[in-house]
Design a protein that fits this description.
mainly beta; 5-stranded mixed beta barrel; single chain; about 10% helix
């Protein structure tokens, strides 16, 4: 059997304060919107938006410590989510399920950082 790798690393800015939710069985979950920039050939920057999902204690820590505009480092894996709308349309999106999140703060140079680790998997 050949080995495969599903790993993503991002360093970006949080687009909105994370909101802590709970699954039906009470497990904490947070979705972060994370912005990363890249320079185009014409010299302009373009922003890519990523959805990062955190579970359990990691989700609770992210909800407590992370705020809009702060820089975070995320490592995790890609997972595609698919669903059907009420109108019968098939939709899908790629998410990053976080294994590690390091809180880098607002970039004010104070050197403070915290981290939250988790297994990045849904606990179902």
């Amino acid at each position: 059997m050949s080995r495969t790798i599903n790993r993503v690393e991002l360093l970006g800015r949080v687009g909105a304060d994370p909101e802590l939710r709970r699954t039906q069985n009470g497990t904490a979950v947070v979705q972060l919107r994370l912005a990363t920039d890249r320079r185009r050939e014409n010299g302009n920057d373009e922003t890519d938006w990523h959805t990062v999902v955190c579970w359990a204690k990691q989700a609770e820590a992210v909800a407590e410590y992370v705020r809009t505009g702060e820089r975070v480092y995320v490592s995790g894996r890609l997972q595609q989510q698919s669903w059907e709308t009420d109108g019968g349309e098939r939709r899908s999106r790629m998410e990053i399920h976080a294994h590690e999140v390091i809180f880098l703060g607002s970039g004010n140079g104070n050197g403070n950082s915290r981290s939250a680790s988790g297994d990045g998997d849904q606990p179902f």
